[in-house]
Amino acid sequence: MNAPRPAVRTVLGDIAPGRLGLCDAHDHLFLRSPLLPGQELDDEAAAEAELRAFAAVGGGAVAQWTPLGLGRRMDLLPRLSAATGVHLIAATGLHQAAHYAPGRLRRLLPGLAERFVADLTGGAAGAGEAGPAGGAPPVRAGMIKVAGSFHVLDAHARFVFSAAAEAHHATGAPIGVHLEGGTAALAVLDALCGGHGVPPGSVILGHLNRAPDSATHRRAAEAGAYLAFDGPSRAHHATDWRLPECLRALVEAGCAERVLIGGDTTTAAARAATGGGPGMPHLPAGLREGIERELGAEAVELFYRRNPARAFAASWRA
C-alpha cells in the first residue's frame, strides 16, 4: 500500500501543501486567558475583518495556535475561512497551567492524548467549547500546540509533551511549541525528539525572536526543527529590531529552509482592521518588504511559502 501523500489539514479539509500560499505561521483569531483579563479575542466580526485585511495584501493562510480551553472557537473557523478565502489551520493541545482556571485544567487533563487525537481526526469540542453546528462536518485541528516554561520544562509541560507525542505518533500531526521568552529550545527538542521519538521536522519552535541567541537557533535548525519568528505584534515590539540579524545568521549558516514567520496577535488592540495594528496584514506587507530588502526574494519565498508548506504538512495516519 502506498503511503499517504503529505497534506495540510485545514478547517475546511486537507489540502496539498502547495495550495497553502503565503502563510502567517503563528497567530490567533480567538483567545481567552485569565492571564490576559480584558484583552480577549472573541469578536467574530473583528476576526473576519482582520482576515480580509490579511487577504487583501496577499495573505493565503493562518495557523491559529489557540489550544484547548482558551476560546479557540472551532465552530466559527470554517465559516471565516470560506468567507475570506484564507486557509485556516486550527490547533489542539494545551498551554501552560497558568492559562487555565484550576477547575477547567482538572477537566482537561484526564485522557489528554485521546482528546488531542479526537480533535485531530474528528473535531471533538474541548471542555466548554462549541462544536460544529448541527449537521456540519467535523472540524479537525491540523496541529498540536504545547508550551514550555522559562528556561526549563516543568512537570505540567512534560505531562503535556508526553500526550502530544502520543497524539503525533497516532496521527502524524505537527507540534508547535510556545517557548516562554524564547528559551529552552534545545530542552524541548531533547524531550520531544530524544525522549518521545517525535521527528524534529514535525516540531515548530515558537517565539525564538524573544531570545536572540543565534547559536541556539542554529543548533535547533541543524537538528531539523522549524523555527518560528513570530513577534511582530504590539505585545512584543521590543524584539522587532533583532529580527533581521537573527534571520541573517540563519541564512548565512545554511538554515534558511527551517525559518517561519508569524504575527502572534494576542490582543484586540494589536489588530490592524479594528485595533491599532500592526496585526496580520503587517506580515505580507511591511515585514515582507523589509526581509526582501535585507535577504532577497528567495528568503521571502522560503520563509512565507515553501517552509510553512512543509512544516504544517503531514502524512496523516488518521
TrEMBL record:
The keyword Ubl conjugation does not apply. The keyword Metal-binding applies. The modification N6-carboxylysine is found at residue 145. Its cofactor is a divalent metal cation. Binds 2 divalent metal cations per subunit. Zn(2+) 2 binds at residues 145, 178, 207. Belongs to the metallo-dependent hydrolases superfamily. Phosphotriesterase family. This is Phosphotriesterase. The lineage of its organism: Bacteria, Bacillati, Actinomycetota, Actinomycetes, Kitasatosporales.
